[in-house]
ORC1-type DNA replication protein (Methanosphaerula palustris), 420 residues
Amino acid sequence: MGLFKKYLTDRNKIFKNREVLRHSYRPHILPHRMPQIDEIASILAPSLRNETPSNILIYGKTGTGKTASVRYVGSELEKASSQNVATCAVVHINCEVIDTQYRVLAQIAKDIERPDETPSDKLRPHIPMTGWPTDQVYMELKNQLEARGGVLVIVLDEIDKLVKKSGDDTLYNLTRINSDLHSSRVCIIGISNDLSFKDFLDPRVLSSLSEEEIVFPPYNAPQLCDILQQRAEKAFVLETLDEGVIPLCAALAAQEHGDARRALDLLRISGELAEREEAEKVAESHVKSAQAKIETDSMIECISTLPTQSKVVLYSMLLLEQLGHLIFTSGEVCRVYQELACHLEIDVLTNRRITDLISELNMLGVINTRVVSRGRYGRTKEMWFDANSTKIQEVIQKDPRLTEQGLGQMDRTWLKQTFR
């Protein structure tokens, strides 16, 4: 109790309700998304007449309000159907977590189970999360839908993760399930940050799934200001934010592709830093500190979750920097990588694939790159670490194979002689 006593007092209190700044919070009003909300609602409206709505594909970068808007429309649809003859329900599946056909079908069946089932309904077998043939799961789901009746809207959030891991069989079955139903209807809403995922789809699946497409544009700085202002009124004690805090958070997030989640994180962490300092107000200096903290935390998470081959490419760059090469070329990275890959007994990638991994590291912000002309010798890619690489080294070496002990007797003399 003594250790936390100072945190339980109201002295220098900053927050009124910090949960309002979390991504999971759903406001009653979504600023600057009414056109998209109205469009989704108009497409789903036929379900209130027990008719099949068109399937929808929704695109937009992270933090553009896609999921929040769909959840809002879904809850309003269920409210409207409760006052109507038609039965409408919405099932929301996160495909980053539930990423196989079996688990998607089983989760849908679990979510549509009703507490008011009749005795005959209760005699139907419960679908386990593993163990049945997928065809049996599909047939049982179809039976449940028929017994339930009405319209079911299935939202597949992060649909690209499902397609990239498990192919398009899930979508093929779900987009054709209406042809096997008589007293029930199904509509699919796919949400994705990645436009290119459509390249993985069979043309027949794509034409069935993308009957309607809606794009969510990034927020600009004034729009982010409105969003933050709306949340700040509920999140912070009155007059604890300096005047420039919200505009600065909005401006910084607008530079990051108009990401409202980034803006909310900046505002929340700024408040938390001020609270820890026991400051009376959140100042612009707290926002700048919050930005540095978020970037560091994001970098650590990004690097720690990289595939093994990407880590080895990145470690090759770290070795070059340790040898005094602050700027290095893709050719140099490839040579060090090949030595590392042989020593670690992993598959040696082609130079083309290594170049692709370097581009991905650049896109993630781990390194900086530029293409330079060498005259008659052609063009090459140069790269360097923008910030102190010590933190990157610490994260990389949490992989036991890339520690000093893990690399063991690798021929470092060759490295020093080759790149001195």
About this structure: The chain has three domains: 34-215, 219-303, 306-418. Strands lie at 56-59, 88-94, 150-157, 184-192, 212-215, 328-329, 368-373, 379-384.
